[in-house]
Specification:
Layout: E1 4-9, E2 14-21, E3 24-32, E4 38-40, H1 47-57, E5 61-64, E6 67-71, E7 80-82, E8 90-94, E9 98-102, H2 113-122, E10 131-138, E11 144-152, E12 158-159, H3 160-171, H4 180-199, E13 205-206, H5 209-229, H6 232-238, H7 241-248, E14 257-258, E15 270-273, E16 276-279, H8 290-293, H9 299-321, H10 325-349, H11 361-378, H12 385-400
Antiparallel strand pairs: 1-2, 2-3, 3-4, 5-6, 6-10, 7-8, 8-9, 9-11, 10-11, 12-15, 13-14, 15-16
Helix pairs in contact: 3-4, 3-9, 4-10, 5-11, 9-10, 9-11, 9-12, 11-12
The chain binds adenosine-5'-diphosphate and magnesium ion.
Length: 403
């Protein structure tokens, strides 16, 4: 096998190893076979169960060599199976009680999740799977990164690329289709995100001119990259002066409040389950360099991420459910408006209205569309239809006077 840099011993010939591969570092669950040699464990080999046993017996924080183990509400559970959905990391469900996620690609540190989850827990944020614990590892450069996370398993949970797409499709199914369910869902998610931000409010600081400049420069770089990667029709839209003006607006955000927010919020990070909605994945935005993923963000960035993903969900719905284009943009607008209004009202009711400055909502939504262009061009060409449809929709809003 080779390439082991470090390992955390668990019970009974099981361990979690940090392994160097051609693709970088990975967190690998391992089991010792009868001959005494270590091999990569699969779901069913009991390494996730062994991690739960370690957490259940551990104090709230412990240091074991270069590993830091956080344990909050873990208990032992038995029976392992793999999560089957398409995902970047490897997750194992244990006893239908917990999800153990091994980090397939270790991010360079520092990693935002340990601190954000800790703050959310300490402030009683209810709308996430209850965090059971996590394991961080300190590399030789001294930064900590996440190697395993353990959360309560929510049976029957589906993410918004399912629930939002289905609700939007149903609401756009003919001119008289009822939209109540979609409107209620959008408003509920607005209150959930308001509670998320209220729970993080104690991290609030004020954006410096350097922060604003970094946001402007980052969006400009994404715009340049999107221009370089797009076909002639898209390129023509991207050359529009309006786009440069919207992006430049980010440079004027010095003085706005910032918090240690979610940072990568979209409908795919909001699970719907029989008990309500749950926000997942506090790993920060994967397109940013690690040092920037931990920086505070304006609350409006999270709001924009979620709002724009509702539009993208509507575009997915249009492709897969063949709904009418006009009905669809009406429904898209309705969902976004209810989400943002409910968010703003609820945040204010929680006493933190000052955190939300919607001035750059459209700029951050545009940035999200541009990131989708770059993502599709680099990794997933069949996704390009989404930003191709989203961009003219967003630019048209300015003409028709939308927010
Ligand atoms: P990845 O980083 O690999 O994308 P995520 O944490 O985003 O992994 O989860 C991927 C999928 O796994 C989610 O969309 C959801 O369907 C499922 N999932 C994640 N966490 C839970 C949980 N606590 N309970 C139930 N399902 C979950
Ligand atoms: Mg994910």
């Amino acid at each position: 096998m080779g390439g082991e840099l470090d390992s955390l011993d668990l019970i009974d010939g099981k361990r979690l190893s940090i392994v160097a591969t051609e693709d970088g570092l990975t967190a690998e669950p391992q089991v010792r076979d009868a001959g005494g040699s270590w091999r990569r464990a699969r779901p069913g080999d009991g390494v996730a169960e062994a991690l739960l046993a370690l957490l259940a017996a551990a104090p709230e924080v412990s240091e074991i060599g270069s590993f830091t183990v956080h344990s909050w509400s873990a208990r032992v559970a038995a029976g392992e199976r793999a999560i089957t959905v398409d995902q970047t990391n490897e997750s194992v469900i244990v006893g239908d009680a917990a999800v153990v996620k091994w980090a397939a690609h270790l991010q360079a540190g520092p990693h935002p999740a340990p601190r954000r989850i800790e703050i959310l827990r300490a402030n009683g944020f209810r709308h996430m799977p209850c965090p059971w614990g996590l394991v961080a590892w300190r590399s030789e450069d001294g930064d900590q990164t996440l190697v395993a996370g353990v959360d309560e398993y929510l049976p029957g949970a589906v993410d918004g690329w399912t629930w939002a797409v289905d609700l939007i499709a149903a609401a756009a199914d003919g001119p008289d289709a009822p939209a109540d369910e979609l409107v209620a869902a959008a408003a509920d998610v607005g209150t959930v995100i308001a509670e998320l931000h209220a729970a993080l409010a104690l991290t609030a600081t004020i954006a410096s001119p350097a922060d604003a400049e970094r946001w402007r420069a980052g969006a400009t770089a994404t715009l340049d990259e999107a221009r370089a990667h797009s076909d002639p029709a898209m390129r023509e839209l991207l050359e529009s002066r309006v786009i440069d003006e919207i992006v430049d607006g980010l440079g004027g955000m010095a003085g706005t409040p910032v918090i240690e927010g979610h940072g990568d919020l979209h409908v795919g990070q909001v699970l719907k389950h029989p008990g309500g909605y749950a926000v997942i994945d506090f790993d920060g935005n994967p397109v940013l360099p690690p040092a920037e993923r931990v920086l505070p963000i304006p609350a409006v960035l999270d709001v924009a991420g979620l709002a724009q993903s509702l539009t993208h969900a509507a575009i997915v719905a249009r492709r897969h459910h063949r709904v009418d284009r006009v009905a669809l943009s009406k429904v898209d607008r309705l969902a976004r408006d209810h989400f943002t209004r409910s968010y703003a009202a609820h945040l204010a009711a929680l006493g933190h209205g000052e955190l939300y400055d919607p001035a750059c909502l459209r700029a951050f939504r545009l940035q999200q569309v541009l990131r989708e262009v770059v993502y599709a061009a680099r990794h997933l060409p069949r996704w390009m239809y989404v930003p191709e449809a989203a961009l003219p929709m967003l630019l048209d809003e300015g003409i028709t006077g939308g927010p």
